[in-house]
Amino acid sequence: MLMDGNRTQDLRRMYTLFSRVNALESLRQALSSYIRKTGQGIVMDEEKDKDMVFSLLEFKVSLDKIWEDSFSKNDVFCNTIKEAFEHLINLRQNRPAELIAKFLDEKLRAGNKGTSEEELEGTLDKVLVLFRFIQGKDVFEAFYKKDLAKRLLLGKSASIDAEKSMISKLKTECGSQFTNKLEGMFKDIELSKEINESFKQSSQARTKLPSGIEMSVHVLTTGYWPTYPPMDVCLPHELNVYQDIFKEFYLSKYSGRRLMWQNSLGHCVLKAEFPKGKKELAVSLFQVGCVLCSCMVAILSMMFSSHSNHVNGQYVIQTVVLMLFNDAQKLSFQDIKDATSIEDKELRRTLQSLACGKIRVLQKIPKGREVDDNDSFMFNDGFTAPLYRIKVNAIQLKETVEENASTTERVFQDRQYQVDAAIVRIMKTRKVLSHTLLITELFQQLKFPIKPVDLKKRIESLIDREYLERDKSNPQIYNYLA
């Protein structure tokens, strides 16, 4: 086929011929049909989800080239390409939006080497073209925000300038309300740097801090960041002291705020003395609790929240586990669980990372890849590694179907609140309105795709909660209840 073979000259001849006999509409329809059929093969093939965004970008580039070289930049054909692309990208309601956010995460991560600033900027512009076609932009926002949070908190951004450039592009496309929380995340990171500098110069830090420990705290505003489940854990005494002193300092500057430590993303660098040499271990806070052994210095990065802000730490878990071995040569699984109060599944993952991975700071008895209730753990006296600084990776469950489903579910919950608010807003103004007109106005106001049956459910919910009532003489008419 001419399109598949990218035969631009033959297509140009066809375009010229069809234009002479007033048959361009037939060619336009054929183009639309081709785009929809080919695009459906890209979007609907779940086995190729990993390559979906890249394939769509390549497809769009090829279509744009054909439009320029073969179709004389005809505006009607340009609109046909746009309409067909919007149709195919929204064939699967939420998945393309999620995958576009994930694609951007890959490009904006520090591990994305070999790409210049200009190339990265060009990629962002191309992805933005796909973003424009997404109807459910709130799904994209939820996944993009979750990934941006990880990049910022773990220092994984390839370029802060590129991050801000992308947010600026999104702001231009969707307005400041869409990017308000994303911009707030950057403000929190910058403000945290100032708070940490101020804390280091404070009297509390100079006179009360335990020696040999440095800690950096991220203070996050809850409304800006994704929600992280609270994780209860018994921290080592040194870390508790540091937290208490920081909290005293912070509340003396910002009275009336509420602080909550969030231990799911914190990370630490431990300087440890092994029989075969000194090493620096880059670990999670939970890992540290398991193994500090002759630790000389711990450099901690933790998250804190103010105004209902939160503080951060999955890397904190490794720290918690490692530090137990300062006072014991051998501990059972139950001993570690009792001492740390780490949730069972999280503790097993942490111990796997310390005793079953490539970097085995601990020895597991008996040997094996899984952690069982009857296992015991010892400090690995024979540990050695060629590098001085070693990263002990936590066993990360890849983003599971459940995790992604949870993010999507939060989007749907937010949509329900928005639908309810829109219904009440319309009815408060109109007082009395027919079902058909109410549905029509809702479609005009809501910025995401939704089915009439789902709108009807929200209307019924508001009737049950006595915001609305059906008219006694005509059940197709709603009355607003003040």
Fold and architecture overview:
The protein is of the alpha/beta class. 53% of the residues lie in helices and 13% in strands. It has 3 domains: 8-173, 5 helical Cullin repeat like, CATH 1.20.1310.10; 190-391, Cullin, Chain C, Domain 2 (Ribosomal Protein S5, domain 2, 2-Layer Sandwich), CATH 3.30.230; 401-480, Winged helix-like DNA-binding domain superfamily/Winged helix DNA-binding domain (Arc Repressor Mutant, subunit A). It has helices at 8-20, 24-43, 52-69, 75-89, 95-108, 117-133, 137-153, 160-174, 176-201, 203-208, 237-253, 285-288, 333-340, 344-355, 401-430, 435-445, 452-464, and strands spanning 213-221, 259-260, 267-274, 277-284, 297-306, 309-310, 330-332, 362-365, 376-379, 389-391, 432-434, 468-470, 477-480. Strands 1-5-3-4-10 form a 5-stranded mixed sheet. Helix 6 runs parallel beside helix 8 and helix 15 packs across helix 16 (435-445). It is globular. The model is unreliable at 289-314 (pLDDT under 50). Residues 95-355 form the Cullin family profile domain. Belongs to the cullin family. Pathway: Protein modification; protein ubiquitination. It holds the Pfam family Cullin.
